[in-house]
Design goal:
- By secondary structure, this protein is of the alpha/beta class.
- The chain has 8 helices and 7 strands; from the N terminus they run E-H-E-H-E-H-E-H-E-H-H-E-H-H-E.
- The chain has helices spanning 13-24, 37-49, 64-77, 103-131, 143-147, 153-173, 198-201, 213-224, and strands spanning 3-7, 29-33, 54-58, 82-88, 136-140, 179-185, 235-238.
- The longest helix has 29 residues, at 103-131.
- The chain is globular, with a radius of gyration of 17 Å.
- It starts with a strand and ends in a 6-residue tail after the last strand.
- The structure holds NADP nicotinamide-adenine-dinucleotide phosphate.
Length: 244
């Protein structure tokens, strides 16, 4: 029996760094992505060049049917294995002040971050809980879901809901030694933040810089490790001292 790690949105940014980190920890990694196959293949090649093992799995986390089909196919191809480590990282931003926010932008952001978490996690939970080998779920929340940020009512709502779900699911899964935690990054240097005025925003950060994806990946790696077996239901901020 081999225990795999699945990282949603593993082709770029934080998800990519998490894939590399988990592979360095010796886990075979499944790199989920939505459309950017070239980027996902690069992550796979990088992991393999470092002696790790990785495979791609394409699906839109916000499409229940696509999630179910992809994960069922994987389970049929791996009857003796299971996904013991799940990082719900896929997420998008569609910022706007609320009075101008198109309905589709409200739903798209909630569907990816919140419904995506639900579709993927629900499907993997039975095996994780049944095996009793200490499964790990890490949800990528955000400073925005704790503090709320103007121009991000959709994103703040999705991430705050993800935090609530993390705390509830942690209590459901704890008797089976499965931990469920959330990570709440501040501003991290990825494609998602490249259109933001970085010079202006970093003045708000006591460390006077954006974080690096690898710094977030280290925290996720720790939460996935055996050492973190007694940490569950937590939301850990990683934001360079930005007040939350
Ligand atoms: P990013 O650079 O824009 O990368 C997004 C990743 O998610 C890509 O791999 C993308 O796949 C994938 N993705 C997007 N929608 C998807 C869907 N419906 N189904 C499957 N995969 C999907 O974003 P990031 O900055 O790394 O952010 C990763 C997570 O961290 C998000 O949840 C974000 O909200 C959160 N976060 C980021 C920051 C920050 O400052 N960057 C701060 C706090 C929280 P493709 O390559 O196929 O497009």
């Amino acid at each position: 029996m081999t225990k795999y790690a699945l990282v949603t949105g593993g082709s770029r940014g934080l998800g990519k760094a998490v894939c590399l980190k988990l592979a360095q920890m010796g886990l075979p990694v499944i790199i989920n992505y939505q459309s950017n196959e070239a980027a996902a293949l690069e992550v796979k090649a990088e992991i393999e060049a470092q002696g790790g093992s990785a495979e791609l799995m394409r699906f839109d986390v916000g499409c229940q049917e696509a999630v179910e089909v992809a994960l069922k196919e994987w389970e049929m191809a791996h009857p003796d294995d299971y996904i013991a480590y799940l990082v719900n990282n896929a997420g998008i931003r569609k910022d706007n002040v609320m009075f101008m926010m198109p309905t589709e932008d409200w739903h798209a952001v909630i569907n990816t971050s919140l419904n995506g978490f639900f579709y993927v996690t629900r499907q993997l939970l039975p095996k994780m809980m049944m095996r009793k080998h200490g499964g790990r779920i890490v949800n990528m929340a955000s400073l925005s879901g704790i503090k709320g940020l103007p121009g991000q009512t959709n994103y703040s709502a999705a991430k705050a809901a993800l935090i609530g779900a993390t705390k509830a699911l942690a209590q459901e899964a704890a008797p089976r030694s499965v931990t469920v935690n959330a990570v709440a990054p501040g501003f991290i240097d990825t494609d998602m933040t490249k259109d933001l005025p970085q010079d202006e925003l970093k003045k708000m950060v006591p460390m006077n810089r954006f974080g690096k994806p690898e710094e977030v990946a280290s925290l996720v790696g720790f939460l996935c490790s055996d050492e973190a077996a007694y940490i569950t239901g937590e939301v850990i901020s990683i934001n360079g001292g930005l007040y939350t």
